[in-house]
Specification:
The complex is a heterodimer of chains A (250) and B (84).
Chain A lengths: L1 E6 L13 H4 L2 H4 L2 E5 L8 H11 L6 E4 L10 H10 L2 E3 L3 E7 L2 E8 L17 H22 L5 E6 L22 H10 L3 E4 L8 E3 L5 E4 L2 H4 L4 E5 L15
Parallel strand pairs in A: 1-2, 2-3, 3-4, 6-7, 7-8, 8-10
Antiparallel strand pairs in A: 1-11, 5-6, 9-10
Helix pairs in contact in A: 3-4, 5-6
Chain B lengths: L8 H11 L9 E5 L2 E5 L1 E2 L2 H14 L4 E4 L2 E2 L8 E3 L2
Parallel strand pairs in B: 2-4, 3-5
Antiparallel strand pairs in B: 1-2
Classes of the chains: A alpha/beta (250), B alpha/beta (84).
Chain lengths: 250, 84
């Protein structure tokens, strides 16, 4: 059984110091891995993410993150990434990583993702250059997610996103803003490649639980949704347990 | 701030709060009733809640600011969820 702690939308900035630290002290007794689903900062400042990085530094379990839209606001996302990496947080954007947990290879493919909407009501990369850029960005990141997941050689595969791949975890948000909260292209990528769990944030007024059209579990771990420092999900690695060898082979 | 038409005032305040780096919160609910501004939504810390009140008062010194935002808990969860 692999135990995954996850949270998004921490929005660290001035005044955030020590918000998470008390809940992290015993985390290694409860989880094997901590995943962060973007919007780690308020305005994308390296000085903001440093406050969070200092609380994550030295955690005895691996930490993997994607960035969110707030982390791009200051156009200093590369610096934000470096600050996290200096604290040994693995940051993914169209990339994947595999972590060995007691012999189980847990693969995580991550991207911020982007918007566009959902089946039957998705924007098209047609018309003005701004519209082409908007939907084109989602297509590019979804394609990268598909490839990163497909290429993973792991016993368990997790897609870590900021934007939502499905509508179900947006319920509670105003319908008018769904196109700014996610895209079905992310779900299609996950369903094409296969995964055991999808985690995302971004939708503060959404719902926690849903599934992709192919039935893969999706969890919205935005902190205002889960109302805890993190939630913990357990996944059965499904490994075939070989019978113990009794005696010699003749 | 130069005051927009009353119909557009809540949205103008919301935009100012999003773009003020001391707040940068996109999910605040803003209502204006006569000379009262009601603010709602979730915030991550008591410090941020106080800052939102401070910034709103700067923006609208002639209005009473009623900050009804909720500080979201950052406590450990009680249980785990098996996912399959």
């Amino acid at each position: 059984m692999i135990r995954i702690a996850a949270v998004g939308d921490l929005h660290y900035g001035a005044g955030s110091k020590e918000i998470l630290r008390p809940s992290l002290q015993h985390l290694h007794n409860r989880a094997d891995l901590l995943l962060l689903a973007g919007d780690l900062t308020r305005c994308g400042g390296p000085e903001e993410v440093k406050i969070l990085a200092d609380e994550l530094r030295g955690l005895p379990i691996p930490v993997v993150a994607v960035l969110g839209n707030h982390d791009y606001h200051a156009d200093r996302q590369d610096e934000v990434r470096r600050v996290l990496e200096d604290a040994r947080v693995r940051v993914l954007e169209g990339e994947a990583t595999t972590i060995d947990i007691d012999g189980v290879r847990v693969g995580i493919a991550g991207t911020k993702g982007f918007g566009g909407g959902f089946r039957g009501a998705h924007g098209s990369d047609f018309g003005e250059p701004e519209m082409k850029a908007f939907v084109g960005h989602t297509k590019t990141l979804s394609d990268r997610l598909d490839k990163a997941l497909t290429d993973l050689d792991a016993d368990l595969r997790i897609a870590l996103l900021h934007y939502s791949p499905i509508e179900a975890t947006l319920e509670g948000e105003r319908l008018e803003i769904y196109p700014f909260l996610g895209s079905y292209l992310l779900a299609e990528a996950v369903d094409n490649a296969g995964a055991d769990l999808v985690l995302h944030g971004h939708a503060h007024h959404g719902a926690e639980k849903g599934r992709t059209p192919a039935g893969i579990p999706v969890r919205n771990v935005a902190q205002p949704v889960i109302r805890h420092a993190y939630n913990i999900y357990t996944l059965d690695a499904g490994r075939q347990v070989l019978p113990a060898v009794a005696g010699g082979i003749s | 701030m130069s005051e927009p038409r009353a119909d557009y005032l809540p949205e103008a305040i919301r935009e100012k709060l999003i773009h003020d780096p001391r707040v940068a919160e996109q999910d605040l609910r803003v209502e204006v009733q006569a000379h009262r501004v009601l603010l709602g939504g979730n915030v991550a810390s008591p410090q941020l809640k106080e800052k939102i009140t401070e910034v709103a008062k700067e923006l609208l010194p002639d209005y009473e600011v009623v900050n009804e935002t909720t500080v979201v808990s950052a406590a450990e969860p009680d249980s785990e969820e098996p996912v399959s």
